[in-house]
Design a protein that fits this description.
With 71 residues, this protein is mainly α. Helices cover 49% and strands 0% of the residues. The mean pLDDT is 76.
Length: 71
């Protein structure tokens, strides 16, 4: 989820850069600030926060004994 949010922030920053605008708030929505927010979200995603890929936890349900539906 954080990687998707970072991609949205980067796309928004790119559009602001292409159109050369700051939406009237030059201190809040400048290119550098949005890039830093995107990098922060991307680094949090890569550090393991958010709903990123989980490795080593196994997948699916574990059935002990007789499996349901087999029978």
């Amino acid at each position: 989820m954080l990687a998707i949010a970072a991609a949205i922030v980067f796309a928004f920053a790119l559009l602001l850069d292409f159109f050369n605008t700051d939406l009237g708030a030059h201190d809040l929505f400048n290119f550098n600030t949005l890039v830093l927010i995107g990098l922060l979200l991307l680094s949090l995603y890569l550090a393991g926060f958010g709903s990123g890929p989980r490795t080593g936890t196994g997948s699916g349900r574990r059935f002990y004994g007789r499996r349901p539906g087999r029978g």
